[in-house]
Structure formats: C-alpha cells, structure tokens
Design a protein that fits this description.
By secondary structure, the chain is of the alpha+beta class. It is built from 8 helices and 8 strands; from the N terminus they run αααααββααβββββαβ.
C-alpha cells in the first residue's frame, strides 16, 4: 500500500511539472538562463560601474619637468596641494636663491643677498616691474597698492617690516602661501613662518603690484 502511495505522489509531481503551472515554475527557478545571457548582463554592469570613474590628468597645463618639480617641492614646503601653487616663475626664481647668506647691499647668488636688493631683482625679472633697491623706496613706489589686512595676502605680495624707529620701513619680504614668507634674516634668505612673533611685531603693511 505504501509503494502505491509513493507512486501516486511521483505521478502527481510529474503531471504538475508537465502542466502550464509547472512550466511557469521552471521559468522562475533562479539562475535559469543561458551562459550568453549571463555574460551579457555582467558586461553591462561592468560598463555602468566603469562609467562612474574617470582618469585624472595631473598635468593638464602641460608643464615641463622642471616646473612640475618646483610645483611639487613648494607645495610640500607650504603644506598645500600642488594645484594651489600657481606662480611658477616666482618659485622657480627664488628656488635658486634659497640659503644664500645675508649680506647688506649685496646681490650675489650663493654668496650674499640683501632682502630689498633681492625683491627689486625678482620683480624686475619675474614681473617686469622697476623698483628702488631700498625698503622705503619700494614702499613708496607708485606701482604698488598698499594694504594692511593679512587676509588679502596672495602669492608674490611684498610684506614690509619696521625694525627701528629711525627707519619706518626697515625691511621687506615676499608672501608665498599658507602664512609662509620669503625673508632674509641673520640665517640668510629662506622661507619662514609669518606667524612667528619676530615678524608679527615688526609687520607694517603689504603691497601688491598694480594691474597695468
């Protein structure tokens, strides 16, 4: 009797699979498609996810190797992203002078440099501007727009300092980026933190070359 019951059960299942309902059941079984269909869908998914990404061009400006080196070097020194270093001529120029010892009224690479002499030469060679070689003379130049607010400082701005009462404008420096300035102290021409008390107590104003 048990054998007959099992036979009837198998017969009913086979009958169901052979019916329309059975065909529907087969169609709904997961992964019941051909390998071609599977490959096609996977390729479509891959194309969709690939389209979410793009190639970043780190040298969209077509800069040469020397300029890229300077850009990367000073972005590290300034603590900023390379894209924030924009005045390439400025950094390339000062890069050759960094570390030159301080010597009054002198301008000789690697031998001696006076800050005001250096600023006069830099602005002449990089920005095609003519200044006096004295801090006070640069301060009084008609080609300079003076301001005091530190929040407005940009790459290449001139910063003016007062060290003694007899000389209201005693020295100059160049603002670079991220509160870093190029200045000449007893240790030579180098990059310093503008927030240092030494500079803050002596800061008078800043100047920017007027647009021609």
């Amino acid at each position: 009797m048990k054998f007959i019951t099992n036979y009837l059960h198998i017969f009913v299942v086979l009958s169901f699979l052979g019916s329309c309902g059975g065909k529907k059941y087969i169609r709904e079984i997961p992964y019941n498609y051909s390998s071609d269909q599977y490959t096609k869908e996977k390729n479509q998914q891959k194309n969709l996810s690939t389209s979410d990404y793009f190639i970043v061009d780190d040298n969209s400006e077509g800069l040469n190797d020397d300029t890229l080196r300077v850009k990367e070097k000073y972005s590290i020194i300034m603590g900023v992203m390379p894209k924030d270093i924009r005045d390439y001529k400025l950094y390339a120029y000062l890069d050759e002078w960094i570390g030159t010892p301080y010597k009054k009224q002198m301008l000789e690479k690697g031998i001696g440099v006076d800050a005001s002499y250096f600023v006069q030469a830099l602005y002449s060679d990089v920005y095609d501007a003519t200044f006096s070689k004295t801090p006070d003379g640069i301060f009084r130049s008609k080609d300079i727009q003076l301001f005091t607010g530190r929040a407005f400082l940009q790459e290449g701005d001139i910063v003016f300092f007062r060290y003694d009462k007899g000389h209201p404008i005693s020295d100059v420096g160049i603002y670079l980026h991220n509160d870093r300035i190029l200045a000449c102290t007893s240790t030579g021409l180098n990059i310093y933190n503008f927030n240092d008390e030494y500079f803050q107590l002596r800061y008078v104003a800043a100047g920017r070359l007027k647009q021609k």
